[in-house]
Amino acid sequence: MKKWIVLLIVLGFAFVGLAIYYWTTSAGNLPSWLPGYEAGSAHKHLKHGLAALILGLGCFTWAWFLSGKKTATSAPEE
């Protein structure tokens, strides 16, 4: 379980970094393998950055839920 938490945190930081990269780099300067690359374009992909930010925050949230206390389940009382 600990491995999943670490992986989700790393992915969260990667997605947040990607969001910042999308917001600060024009579409013509993105690497060609990234979605949104347009040769010679000067506009920035705000929606791609927003999607990456949402994915990053989702990874952080999932890691937070996985790191919570585990409650013991009791047998139903009759």
Compact overview of the structure:
This protein has 78 residues and is mainly alpha-helical. 56% of the residues lie in helices and 0% in strands.
Explained architecture:
The protein is mainly alpha-helical. The protein has one domain (2-66). The chain is built from two helices and no strands. Helix 1 (2-24) packs antiparallel against helix 2. It starts with a helix and ends in a 12-residue tail after the last helix. The relative contact order is 0.21. The mean pLDDT is 87.
Radius of gyration: 19 Å
Biggest β-sheet, characterized? none
Number of domains: 1
> Spans of 5+ residues with little confidence (pLDDT < 50)?
none
Percentage of residues in helical conformation = 55-70%
Identify the notable features of this structure and list them briefly:
78 residues; mainly alpha
Topology readout:
Blueprint: H1 2-24, H2 46-66
